[in-house]
Design brief:
With about 260 residues, the protein is an alpha+beta fold. The chain has two domains: about 120 residues, Beta Polymerase, domain 2 (2-Layer Sandwich); about 130 residues. About 50% of the residues lie in helices and about 15% in strands. The strands form two sheets. Strands 3-4-5-2-1-6 form a six-stranded mixed beta sheet, sandwiched between helices. Strand 4 and strand 5 form a beta hairpin. The longest helix has 22 residues. The protein is globular and about 55 Å long. The N and C termini lie far apart (about 50 Å).
């Protein structure tokens, strides 16, 4: 095992009563399940689900004394290094959540660091936000919102016409993922993850679309009621386009002006 780090909102002093404890275990080889079962038994849990492989390999349990949920995620050091290299050096954008792993690393606290590997990686995380990455995130995610034929807005329109609620839900979630990726990149702020994004954008981003919170609320309420969804979608994205123009980007190309 190379390192163990405490991350998530609890580590960043931004948690609430529903927040779990996120522990990241960096190990080149899988820790035997029997050893993990023995550890959880020693710590005492009221319920445990171990060896989960739904997303990353992980163990979760509720602490018997406090009721706190503990979430342990196992990552290989080489894997997280490759994920960070994609953004730090290759400037590769994803559709949503591009800088989430960078944010996780940057806001984690080392609990164990066998040879200083984690400390070295965290030092690298303190670098400035690369302008090439910023432009790549905006170009990719803004285009997917409404500009190209298979955009999320177009797919939302078709889902409404078909009264396909499952498809509508799927495309709305994807649109919001890219919408927030644009906002955080525009502000050169690392993407904090999927929780409380309106609150975090308002707290950490100086440049936001006009009435962002109210527009998102109206948009989501329209989705729930299937009332004026397309109008609310376009209003939401119009305001984002206005912000991009103010910041020197051309919404017609998703690229910097000039």
């Amino acid at each position: 095992m190379e390192a163990v780090a405490w991350g998530g909102s609890q580590a960043a002093a931004g948690g609430d009563r529903l927040s779990d404890i996120d522990l990241y275990v960096y190990a080149a080889a899988a820790i035997p399940l029997a050893a993990r079962e023995a550890l959880v038994a020693e710590l005492r849990s009221s319920r445990a689900d171990l060896n989960l492989q739904l997303w990353d390999l992980g163990d979760e349990w509720y602490d018997a004394d406090t009721g706190l949920e503990v979430d342990v995620i196992y990552w290989e050091p080489a894997w997280i290094e490759s994920q960070l290299d994609r953004v730090w050096r290759q400037y590769q954008a994803s559709l949503g959540y591009t800088t989430c792993f960078w944010h996780t690393l940057d806001h984690s606290q080392a609990l164990y660091d066998r040879q200083g590997w984690f400390a070295n990686l965290q030092r690298q995380s303190k670098q400035p936000y690369p302008e090439t990455l910023r432009r790549a995130i905006i170009a990719k995610n803004h285009a997917a919102l409404r500009r190209v034929i298979p955009s999320y807005a177009h797919q939302i329109e078709k889902a409404c016409q078909r009264n396909d609620l499952v498809s509508l839900n799927h495309r709305v979630a994807a649109l919001l993922a890219s919408y927030f990726d644009v906002i955080f990149a525009l502000n050169r702020v690392l993407h904090p993850g999927e929780k409380r994004l309106i609150e975090r954008a308002q707290a950490h981003c100086a440049r936001l679309p006009l009435d962002m919170g109210a527009q998102l609320s109206a948009f989501l309420q329209a989705v729930c009621s299937m009332d004026d969804v397309l109008q609310r979608t376009n209003t939401l994205l119009d305001n984002l386009d206005d912000l991009l123009r103010q910041e020197g980007f051309d919404p017609a190309t998703s690229l910097p002006l000039g």
